[in-house]
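FAQ
Q: What does a multi-component entry look like?
A: The components come first, one per line:
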Amino acid sequence: MKELEVAERAAVEAGKIAMKYFRGDFEVKLKGRNDLVTNADVECERHIKKIISSEYPLHSFLGEEEGSQGTSKDVWVIDPIDGTTNFVHGVEQFCHSIALVRDNELVCGAVYNPVMNLLYTAYRGKGAFLNGRRIKVSRAESLGECLIITGFPYDAVGAEESDVHAKTLAAIASLRGSIHDVRRFGSAALDLCRVAHGICDAYFEYRIKPWDIAAGMLIVKEAGGKVTDINGNEASFMSPHFVASNGLVHERLLSHLEASK
Ligand code: IPD
Ligand code: CA
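Then the predicted structure of the entire assembly, as tokens:
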């Protein structure tokens, strides 16, 4: 499991960079109307890639800030800071998310929140862990017992933005009376780890990106959870409309979500 050790080390090292800037001075730029990026995001992505390349010089990358690099069948999918808006505002809910995909299959993933020192990890077939201790999804059997997480994309524009927001708000309205509550924490990778850890029961988001979900998706599956696209079909880390749950409430949650292509 050397790949996972490298992912963990890169995530923890990125955490040191983020903590150097957190609640301090950094530059913020806009990628879109409310899609933020900081110099810390870029520095983290470069440092993560440097650590991985020193072990696996031929592997490829897909990163949020610098895009695709290389043609290897081994691709490291990186969100250098997931929850950038939280990071910018000094809110603790952000993380570094790193996954290895081989021939389009997830091999391992690490998600690290440096403020709370939470390191979530999984290797395919070997279970999911938080700081080295095994984690499992919740046992909630009815939606009535559930705390469900969602999110809104920052980079959708125009008609697509309206469509995604309308579908998300309609789902919240439809669920609101039938569950304990809805949360929007602002970091999809950490949201998936909360489902894996069993402290929340499910997560859904329309129009999510591969780097937001790749590591967290494997962590949920290895914790005994279920992931599908919003139509209930098998999900990949490239699925844009994504649902994860403890498995037990999955079908009932899907019935509140509007299908999407
Ligand atoms: C965002 C977060 C957020 C989700 C957005 C993502 P970023 O990632 O994961 O929770 O709702 O869709 O874009 O921009 O903070 O890396
Ligand atoms: Ca992200």
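Q: Is there any commentary attached?
A: Sometimes. For this entry: The chain has a mean pLDDT of 96.
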